[in-house]
Amino acid sequence: MERTERLNAILDLLAAEGSVLVEDIVTRLSVSPATVRRDLDSLATQRLLTRNRGGATMEAIAYDLPTRYSRDDHTTEKQAIARAASNLVTKGSVIGLCGGTTSTAIAQVLGMRSDLMEPSSKPTLTVVTNAINIAAQLVVRPNIRIMVTGGVVNPRSYELVGPYTDVILQRVALDIAFIGVNGLDPDVGPTVSDEGEAEVNALMARRASETFIVADSSKIGARNFATMTGYVFSNLITDSGITGEQKAAFEASGTKVIVAPENTE
Fold first, then answer.
1. Cα-based torsion angle of the residue sequence 29, 34, 36, 40 in order, rounded to the nearest 10 degrees
2. Whole-model pTM?
3. Per-residue three-class SS string for 14-51
4. Which of the 8 DSSP states describes residue 114?
5. Fewer beta carbons within 10 Å, N or C terminal of the chain?
């Protein structure tokens, strides 16, 4: 097993289990303890994990995220949505990620994809985001190019908003954008709680060849303060909690609905 393949395998184990022991990696990958320790030290230097005496754990976040990130009752559903979204992203793409917990989950899944971590002379993925936590999450992946929009930070969401954000987004062309929302209604469309975020979301959506609203099923039927003016809502990725009636209502409005399968592993 080559070193790059081995490092990716270690990160896959870490993503699945949250922590790994040196002896477990030795057994699973059939390599020596010394090799495993060198690999873990290398990944720790890249801030892809945190070393401990017996092995490693996932890299700890060095700052406190807002409550919306730390108290999430729908993590499983958002991970399923994130995997479905990642399956739509091809190597070399330029994608847009707005802020929010579901977009953050997508960033996590993309950051662990082995094909995006293969050695390359050019970026394997370009991510344009207005969320500073997503930028910090992905910047340690050397093959992923990050472009952060300008603007003023909303401390409740870590998203950059305002006219400077608009200036940057007007100058980019995205292959695909993933937009998280606070509420979703087949008649009103996607809504968020902050008008500044709504404007940025709508502009990012318009700059993409294809845009997907990503929302767990608890958001369906909810309405929030601000609509995404100027954006035609046509694609939704949600989880299996969506009812047949809800799915039919979106499809009757011309929206394609992708139901992310549950992880059966």
1. 180
2. 0.78
3. HHHHCEEEHHHHHHHHCCCHHHHHHHHHHHHHCCCEEE
4. G
5. C
